[in-house]
Design brief:
Blueprint lengths: L1 E4 L8 H5 L4 E4 L4 E4 L9 H10 L5 E4 L2
Antiparallel strand pairs: 1-4, 2-3
The protein binds iron/sulfur cluster.
Iron/sulfur cluster binds next to α1.
Length: 64
């Protein structure tokens, strides 16, 4: 699984709070970023949840 966060991110940090091991807020880009190139399997479910909950629909998932 690979994940990108688009410029639609509105910075409410829900994904950061849900899974800080994967998502962090980048103060320079003013959007959240993903810490991994490929998401470790143990985080896949919570990443899908973050994508569902993202009010800006900014979390894009590409499944393997
Ligand atoms: S939940 Fe969506 S809008 Fe909120 S910080 Fe994460 S990517 Fe951005």
């Amino acid at each position: 699984m690979k994940v990108t966060i688009t410029s639609q991110c509105m910075g409410d940090r829900n994904c950061n709070n849900l899974c800080p091991d994967v998502f962090e807020y980048d103060e320079d880009q003013l959007k959240s970023i993903v810490k991994f190139d490929t998401i470790p399997e143990k985080y896949e479910d919570v990443v899908r949840q973050a994508a569902r909950e993202c009010g800006a629909e900014a979390i894009e998932i590409v499944e393997d």
